[in-house]
Amino acid sequence: MRIFADKRIRTLFHKIFLSMAVFIAVGAGVARSVGKYYYDSMIAPDFTAYFILCCALCMILTIVVILWRYFQEQNRILEEAAARVREYMAGNQEARIACLEEGELYRLFHEVNSLAAVLNAHTEKERKEKQFLKDTISDISHQLKTPLAALNIYNGILQGEAENQPTIQEFTMLSEQELDRIETLVQNLLKITKLDAGTIVMDRQSENMAEMMETVRKHFAFRAECEGKEIRLTGDCEITLLCDRVWMIEAIDNIVKNALDHTKEGGLVQVSWRESASAVRLTVRDNGSGIHSEDLYHIFKRFYRSRFSKDTQGIGLGLPLSKSIIEAHNGTIEVDSIEGRGTAFVITI
Hints:
Radius of gyration: 37 Å
Structural class: alpha+beta
Strand content: 5-15%
Oligomer: single chain
Strand order of the largest sheet: 2-4-5-7-6
Largest sheet: 5 strands, mixed
Number of helices: 7
Distance between the termini: 55 Å
């Protein structure tokens, strides 16, 4: 049987059978001797039965002690294995369970070690792929900066030369918008790949929430005024958040921009924050068109375009970028939306 490949199990059974054999032999020998000595006495059967009972009890006690020591040793082995697993999960990729002996338990340990090796290989492969993607997009981004800058200059020259030509003015303004979109796309791609590759270190400091949200409001104040929309801030002025100010403002900017994109004239975008015992919760709520139920599970996917959206300008990177930034702060972002009534993004850090 495969179970007896384990040396400890073989030893356990040997000890149990040996104990049984010894006590049976002792009991039989003593019973025989007593029977011969007291063959004419009435107390011989009583004494023999009593002695056999004592031998049985001693045998049971011995087997219990053997089993107790065996299971105590097994528990120690399992605890050591669990400690190695926890060590691996804590980040030590070299942690392994000792499995130098034979048996089903050590076979399981060997499979766990093999799984750890496979996971390490996949992790290393993924790291290299992310690094390659980051380097590639970074190279492309840097290569695009020069022609984009040149195109912006040429576009500006055309606008200056065509002051009295409305048609050319219109097309140069449209080309400027498209150039801005391309530049935004390139910058967002570069930021996301850096976050994915883990090459960005968040410079976390205690930042005042009210001041950060006022900065966000100012970024969109002119646009909101032109479009007849309102950005309202609500929250305790004393609340602080341990974060990288630049990156956190970037994340919230994208969410507020998304809210403005999906609200009509007269719409309201409310940014509120509050502090609980263990977290700071920020909510960006609008009373716009809302998100279709079919899209709720996909809005954080890169380049996702809803077939129900009327926004033709978005490139589908703002919300994924916000999610990556928030997760880099060990936070979470959730969305709740009712179509036709508005959307709320809830950030918890």
